[in-house]
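User: Hello! I'm new to structural biology and keep hearing that structure can be predicted from sequence alone. Could you demonstrate with DUF2635 domain-containing protein? Please show me the input and the output so I can see what each looks like.

Assistant: Of course. The first part below is the input, the amino acid sequence of DUF2635 domain-containing protein. The second part is the output, the predicted structure written as tokens.
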Amino acid sequence: MYVKPAPGVLLRDPVTKQLLSAVPVEGLNVTVAPAEGLQVGDFDLYWVRRLRDGDAVRVAPAAKAVPASQPDKTSA
């Protein structure tokens, strides 16, 4: 699943121990979570608790770019 901190919330990444934020925070050294979110395990209890408490939000995974198909050039 993909998650990111809720707006206005600072979270500590349990792996890197760095503060995570959805936006830069003036005066603090924080890591800004990407808009597409951080990939974490579906059953990672830390993130499940953060989601339950409202400190993090679940983000839909970014769709992969699919090249547009070329229209068939058939003569009528």
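User: So the tokens describe the shape?

Assistant: Right, they're a compact way of writing down the 3D structure. Reading them back into a model, for example: The two ends are 49 Å apart (CA to CA).
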